[in-house]
Amino acid sequence: MTERLAMSVDEIARAVGASASTIKRAVDRGDLPRLPHVGRRILVPTHAVHAWVAGTTSTTNEESRQQFAPADGSTPTTEGTRDAEHPGS
């Protein structure tokens, strides 16, 4: 099984034993970078979560955007990215 590339706020909160609001504040402060919008979900690169938990500086939001940008240089779209876990997103 391969490791997922990104985690939601709720997944991070469960994994580290913190509240979702604590994780969201970390994202809002820039302590955890977020990927471009995928519906209403906030997704954080898994490698950034590991670095944050380890207490090291993670990548910035711009570095994460560049890392996950489409290879053809186009702007990523969120069309059709709703997931079954959050149908109202």
Largest β sheet strand count, sense and barrel closure: 2 strands, antiparallel
Please give the share of residues in helix: 25-40%
Widest sheet: strand ordering: 1-2
Specify the structural class.
mainly alpha
Percent in strands? 5-15%
The ordered string of helix (H) and strand (E) elements is EHHEHH
What features would you highlight for this structure?
89 residues, mainly alpha, two-stranded antiparallel ribbon, 4 helices, 2 strands, 38% helix, globular, disordered C terminus
Question: Can you describe what's shown?
Answer:
By secondary structure, the chain is mainly alpha-helical. The chain has a domain at 6-67. The chain is built from four helices and two strands. The protein has helices spanning 9-16, 20-29, 46-54, 61-67, and strands at residues 6-8, 43-45. Strands 1-2 form a two-stranded antiparallel sheet. α1 packs across α2. The longest helix has 10 residues, at 20-29. The termini are far apart. The model is unreliable at 77-89 (pLDDT under 50).
Short structural summary:
The protein is mainly alpha-helical.
Topology summary:
Layout lengths: L5 E3 H8 L3 H10 L13 E3 H9 L6 H7 L22
Antiparallel strand pairs: 1-2
Helix pairs in contact: 1-2
